[in-house]
Each structure stands twice: as C-alpha cells, then as structure tokens.
Design a protein that fits this description.
Length: 222
C-alpha cells in the first residue's frame, strides 16, 4: 500500500481499481510456474528466506498459508537499520523493500518450492518497482538469499522461468544481498489475517491466497 488511507477513502479507490478485473483475480498475473529443476539439499528442520513482492501484507498473508512455513514476519530489507521505519521506507529513498522473512521446515517445503509459489501467485516478476496499485522501489520484486545455496537455486530458477517463457514480459526480479532484516511495526504484522475485509486486502491480496489454494492444494494450510 502506498499509504494507509481511511477505510472510506480506500473503499472508493478500491472500487475504481477493481473495474474490469475478473472476480477472484488480482491485478498481477497468476501463473502456474513449473517445478524448479534445481532444489537445494535439506539440512536441518529450520531455514530462513526473505522475499519482497510489493506490499508485505499480501506476501505475509500468502506464505502464512503454506504448509511447512513456521512463521512469516513483515519487515524491511535492503537498507540500513536506521531507516527501517514505515514512514522512511515509504519515501522510496532508503534502499529498503517491504519484505517478509519466512521461517520454514525444509523437510516439508524447500526453498525452491517457496520460489515457485512466489513466482506463481505472490508477485508479478515483470513489473519494475511496482506491484498492483503500489509504485516505488520499496515495492520492487526482489529475493534476498540467506545462503549460497539459496542464491544458486534462485538464479537457476529465474533462468528456468525465462527459458520457459512463462510470462509475456521479461523478468525483472532482483537477487540482492541484505544488510539485515528489520521487522515492521506491530500494526503491519498479520494485517491480512486481522483485517480480511479491508478493501485493499479484498482487492489485492485475498485473490493471491485463493490462487495459492487453487494451484497448490498439497501445499495449502488453513
């Protein structure tokens, strides 16, 4: 969300955005991305990954429903800790992207599986510094690998998707190093779960969760 609007104002904006969209579909493209050809070896029962794909409300909302995900936390990645506050990040000048830290059990769902879900229903990887109605580098599509293995898998999967011509435009998702992950303010945590009927959520994020359930029923958890 570019900024938090009063409910009434957002409802009006939401009505304008939804015109012309088929029911149940967000503005971003929903695809059934292919299974990743490269999968990292499993080591232990806990691993962390960081994803940026537009407003963190929806990214957190989707990954919270993935079987094997232990926790999903909204926050900021790509910039310094001193500027990891919502008002600063919203200026688009901090280097941060609204991001989600996902802690998962790789025995149940590996990093490659999470990438497939990310590229299928979380973000449109062909949009530069934009997702849905939100614009600016803080809403960029980016991956922040937490290990060399994750970086290798992410790079390979983007190459695989590009070769498969899954999307009508080039993939612009960035693979970045992070200076750390900084949790967002309490107000933003689990926002989708706490506000399922908020207009922004209804229009932009609930369709992503519905697509997850539809495309990946074996990965779905209520």
């Amino acid at each position: 969300m570019s900024r938090i609007l009063p409910f009434a104002a957002l409802a009006v904006a939401g009505a304008a955005l939804i015109v012309g969209l088929r029911p149940g579909f967000a503005a971003e493209t929903v695809v059934n991305a292919p299974r990743p050809a490269l999968v990292e070896p499993v080591a232990g029962h806990r691993e962390t990954a960081i994803f940026a794909g537009g407003c963190f409300w929806g990214v957190q909302g989707v990954f919270s429903h993935v079987k094997g995900v232990v926790s999903a936390t909204s926050g900021y990645a790509g910039g310094k800790g001193s500027t990891a506050q919502y008002e600063d990040v919203s200026t688009g000048t901090t280097g941060h992207a609204e991001s989600v830290k996902v802690v998962f059990d790789p025995v149940q769902v590996n990093y490659a599986d999470l990438l497939r879900i990310y590229f299928s229903v979380v973000a449109d990887p062909t949009l530069l510094n934009q997702q849905g109605p939100d614009h600016g580098p803080q809403y960029r599509s980016a991956l922040f690998p937490q290990s060399r293995s994750q970086a290798k898998v992410a790079q390979a999967y983007i190459v695989q998707l590009t070769a498969a011509h899954v999307y009508p435009r080039p993939i612009v998702t960035r693979i970045e190093q992070t200076q750390g992950f900084f949790p967002a303010e309490a107000f933003h945590q689990d926002f989708m779960a706490k506000n399922p009927n908020y207009p922004y959520i209804v229009i932009n994020d609930r369709p992503k969760v519905e697509a997850l359930k539809r495309l990946f029923p074996m990965s779905w958890k209520a």
